[in-house]
Amino acid sequence: MNTPPSPSGADRTDGSSVQIGALVPLTRPGWVEAGQHLLAGLELAVSEVNDAGGIVGSPLELVVRDTAADPQRAAAAVDELARLGVAALAGEYHSVVARAAAAKADALGLPFLCSSAVLDALTEQPTEWVARLAPAQSHGWQIYADFLLGAGYSRIAVAAEPSVYWASGARILRDYLAPRGGTVIELDMSELAPTAVCDELVDHRATALLLLVGHPEPAVSIVKSVRGDQRLAEIMIGAPAGQPEFAGWATLLGDDSTAIPFLRYLPERLSPLGERVETALRERLGEAPSFVAFEGYDTIAVLADVLRSHGADRARIAEFWPRVAVEGTRGQIQFSRTPGISVWQWAWTPVQVVDRDPAEPDRFRVLHAG
What is the CB neighbour count within 10 angstroms for residue 331? Predict the structure, then answer.
């Protein structure tokens, strides 16, 4: 491995803390609720590592930077964190932001364990420096497509905003569904108002509408428009990117928040570790933790294990990705090279398609598992 010249994070003889840089969306237009859950998981795991003696006697410290869903801001934060001497990077929720962070981390020779972003091409070229916990978009969204077909939905409209992430999602769905008898109708939300979506759905005889758009807007307005249109009483609304996972969705939409299937990365049953962490996260958040909070916790669990084994030298951390074997909250975490994926990948975390129960909006129903 060719290590670019940069602070290695290894030269600590003064008992100072071992630092991990954390990239998290904490202000708009970032998805703040997701960022708060991700940070809660990261912070809980750090506190537990330190309660257990830290990293070979040195405390573990998070150096948090708010990305605000801005790729340029994230790249600048990676630059800054590298100069500060962090041993590794963790976090990020938004795929397009994580891609910018991964490119910068790769260029600087800074290990980055991405918690939540799913875009397949997280880096343009294969890299030794970046690993990922979340399943690749092609894996999760193909499972979602299987759910659609199994539930009898074959004429599927996607309301999509311009974005690398949404375009990638639409392509995955189209490529997977077309050979299996499905039709994907793309509605360009840069051209359509939420109210105009209803006429398009009627004209195209769509049986399902997928929200490939930002939260809360225009997702919330689209749901309200479609649910308020009697012509569309039978249409299924779906959100593969997971917008309904967080409590804010139910708060904004009330009864309209339910029966909207989305992807969630949790097992059918949590392990004893997962159950303990769930309880602690619930106390920390004041609400039920999302799968994103578990992703944050597992990120630190992996990095702490690597740091204990190999110290804070950046090159040695990156070299260790293929030898990781850590019990996480959602299963045994190991990284491998996966076809079509440019980073070290956990293949795969559990994947579910779930929705909010119309009879009890705070309860989730598992509709399909991959």
Answer: 16
